[in-house]
Amino acid sequence: MTKQTTLVWFRQDLRIKDNPALSWAVEQGDIIPLYVFDEQSDDVEPLGGASKWWLHHSLQSLQKTLKDKLIIRKGKAADEILALAAAAGVDTIVWNRRYEPGELSRDKDIKQKLKEADYKVKSFNGSLLWEPMQILKNDGTPYKVYTPYYRNGCLGHASPRYPLQSPDDIKFSNHDVELGDVEDLALLPTLDWADDFDALWEPGEVGAAEKLSKFIENAAQQYRDQRNIPAVEGTSKLSPHLHFGEISPNQIWYSILDAFGGSDNDNIDTYLSELGWREFSYYLLYHWPKITTDNFNKKFDQFPWLNDSNALVAWQRGQTGIPIVDAGMRELWQTGYMHNRVRMVVGSFLVKNLLLDWRAGAKWFWDCLLDADLAANTASWQWVAGSGADAAPYFRIFNPILQGEKFDKQGEYVKTYCPELSKLPNKYIHKPWEAPDKVLSEADVVLGKDYPNPIVDLKESRQRALSAYDEVKG
């Protein structure tokens, strides 16, 4: 067989193990690995600040793994790929598919241009357990409800493919093309808000594998209950690694099953179903590409959102006067992450208690989350707003006091991120405005000075939300 030179275009698959495009290319002969930082192509969503920080370090990790052979470029992917293919004498270009609307449109355009230039092109599924076009109802239409989608559509379709091992003996093509450097992409923030990330996270394939091993060893067997407690390490925290493709869902899926067995284990079944939710998010975005900006449920087009910039800023800064909400928003700012239970609480508070548009929340999360994922972020915000597919009923409004008292009983989470409240007794840690003056004084808390008074009355705002919902439910 004649060996060929293949250009491997890395995207959100920054790993060597279980990388279908890379493995195929290595089998054909020499490779040229490429990463293009593309914010110029039409409809491609620019990364938020936290995501750029992660990408910088993830690319450095991949560069090291690829023995400093990774070519780094910045610009329109189509232009950069065609230029490199011509300069380096490439036969074939391969990549792992993406499913966001802008990426799909761009990839179709790139594939057409490459074929017109007589290059061979192949793409692979390297990021989903089940591709969106594979899972349809019996009548050929897409699912709109998660449970039948996952239980009947996905689990009833076919088992996910087993992950590939790292390719043996990667051979890199000799060329005279300048490599470029990760530093040239200027991804790191100029503000110092990301300084603490280094101590908390290890972007890259090695860090992802260590996170998964730690989860399997320490938390997976208690996942169903402990995942809701923000003060404990009850979740895998793999989402940033998964988003950037430093680990595949297939690797996670089979590592869990190989360690613990099948779905008769409630903890494992619950965790695998969370991977199913990620799949469903991509599924919705693929079949309804406008949901990033438009309500899935068109009735919400008439929803009477408020325009209160002061309330939005208070929410963003963790200064709402509602401790569990503020703790969550401060965790986000300090760590680039937020516990999933708390994400639902702060989301509900924004769209229901403050009546602020879910898009404002999605935009803030997009910029601040290390795991900011267009599909998951969009689907989650539409879910909590009540406007999405299989959404939480609008009348289900999270009570942040009860959520705090149930899942942060000792106030450990609140005390970590709202240290000004750390001396309050547990009885009042989630509702300091109810504490007697003597208790506040002994805790060195002056409401309105050391910690804000609530910016909204929870009971009244709940009723206001229900009244607003009555206007659109029809």
From TrEMBL:
Enzyme class: lyase
GO molecular function, one term: deoxyribodipyrimidine photo-lyase activity
Enzyme nomenclature, EC number: 4.1.99.3
Alphabetic keyword roster: Chromophore, FAD, Flavoprotein, Lyase
PROSITE patterns, per database record: DNA_PHOTOLYASES_1_1, PHR_CRY_ALPHA_BETA
Pfam families given in the database record: DNA_photolyase, FAD_binding_7
Bilayer-spanning residue ranges: none
Family: Belongs to the DNA photolyase class-1 family. Belongs to the DNA photolyase family.
Protein name: Deoxyribodipyrimidine photo-lyase
